[in-house]
Write a structure and sequence with these properties.
The structure holds two protein chains of two kinds. By secondary structure, chain A is mainly α. In chain A, 78% of the residues lie in helices and 0% in strands. Chain B has one domain: Butyryl-CoA Dehydrogenase, subunit A, domain 3 (Up-down Bundle), CATH 1.20.140.160.
Chain lengths: 133, 197
């Protein structure tokens, strides 16, 4: 093999290297096949719809049970605890009062989490819908 | 810039299941993948399209396994290589359906191409031409691994380390295949009147 041989081979393959194969519907066939084999987009839509439904129900329950007043009360109590803690901590560290968790607190936490999930779900659904519009 | 755009499309597919993004990747790489198979199958357009379709489906299913350490193109060609060798393995277990070019590395392959036993490359939709027939004849004299390395380097323009990454061969083996393949090609071209004046 000498330099001339290399040039000869490179020239021979030059045209092949620059050739582009036209799509001619190939990519459409691939996407159709993927849709046949993995129709996950429908499941995704169903899943997101179900999530949205659950969150809407949770939101209705939240307003029906006056959840906002619970949140306001709990925030006030929490701020009071923080204030008390900051006042007494330098003199005597007694955390026993922090163990008195109100029964409604977990409910509020769950509702807040559901709110966050709802926002994320709406964002996701909007993105999904925008792809098909 | 290109790899960033690929990475963005891959992320959209992997995270949001965005099929439009995958469609863009298919459109972008279909020519490269189909051309790869056309050269390995000596111009069997239908088989090449089937194998290319399998490649893209596997890429879609395993898209979350793409780590971005290599380019998307290299990763895709690695899948294409595996699809081709899986196909070859299956064919070897059913030798009655083995095409004539398969596993035949030496004499006669070029003759069969010219006699028309192998469907023309133009069936793949890229137009016809006498040079392509000559190229198929030239590629037919090579062993499959030599053909693989030669086409990846001379047609796809990939460096040796990338060919090694795609084929899983050590770089030294790739170099050997390239060297032997080029020697055979040079001899073949000279014998067929391609020698430089």
């Amino acid at each position: 093999m000498n330099e001339n041989d290399n040039i000869l081979i490179e020239q021979f393959f030059r045209e092949a290297a620059s050739q582009q194969i036209r799509d001619n519907g190939f990519s459409d066939r691939v996407m159709e096949r993927i849709e046949e084999l993995h129709p996950s987009s429908h499941y995704t839509l169903l899943s997101m719809g179900w999530t949205l439904f659950c969150i809407t129900v949770a939101l209705l329950v939240f307003f029906w049970l006056h959840g906002w007043s619970e949140i306001a009360t709990n925030i006030t109590v929490m701020l009071t605890y923080v204030e008390v803690f900051l006042r007494i901590a330098p003199t005597a560290l007694d955390l026993s009062s922090f163990m008195d968790v109100q029964p409604s607190s977990p409910v509020v936490t769950v509702v807040l989490s559901l709110l966050v999930l709802m926002v994320l779900s709406i964002i996701g659904l909007t993105r999904w819908a925008s792809r098909w519009v | 810039m290109t790899s960033l755009s690929d990475l963005s499309l891959v992320t959209q597919v992997a995270v949001f299941g965005n099929r439009n993004a995958f469609d863009k990747l298919v459109v972008k790489y279909q020519s490269q993948v189909r051309r790869f198979f056309l050269h390995q199958t000596m111009g069997d357009g239908q088989l090449s399209d089937d194998l290319a379709q399998d490649t893209f489906i596997k890429a879609y299913v395993n898209i979350r396994q793409f780590r971005g350490t290599a380019s998307f193109s290299t990763w895709l060609m690695r899948i294409a290589y595996n699809v081709f060798y899986d196909y070859k393995r299956k064919e070897q277990t059913h030798p009655q359906s083995l095409p004539e070019w398969r596993g035949d590395d030496t004499s006669g392959a070029a003759d069969r191409c010219q006699k028309g036993n192998i469907s023309p490359l133009s069936q793949g939709g890229d137009g016809g031409g006498s040079l392509r027939l000559d190229m198929r004849s030239a590629l037919a004299i090579l062993k499959p691994d030599e053909r693989m390395c030669i086409t990846l380097q001379l047609i796809d323009g990939r460096p040796i380390d990338e060919i090694a990454s795609i084929t899983g061969m050590p770089s030294g083996t790739v170099k050997s295949h390239l060297s032997r393949g080029k020697e055979k090609l040079a001899t073949y071209l000279k014998q067929n009147g391609y020698e430089r004046k």
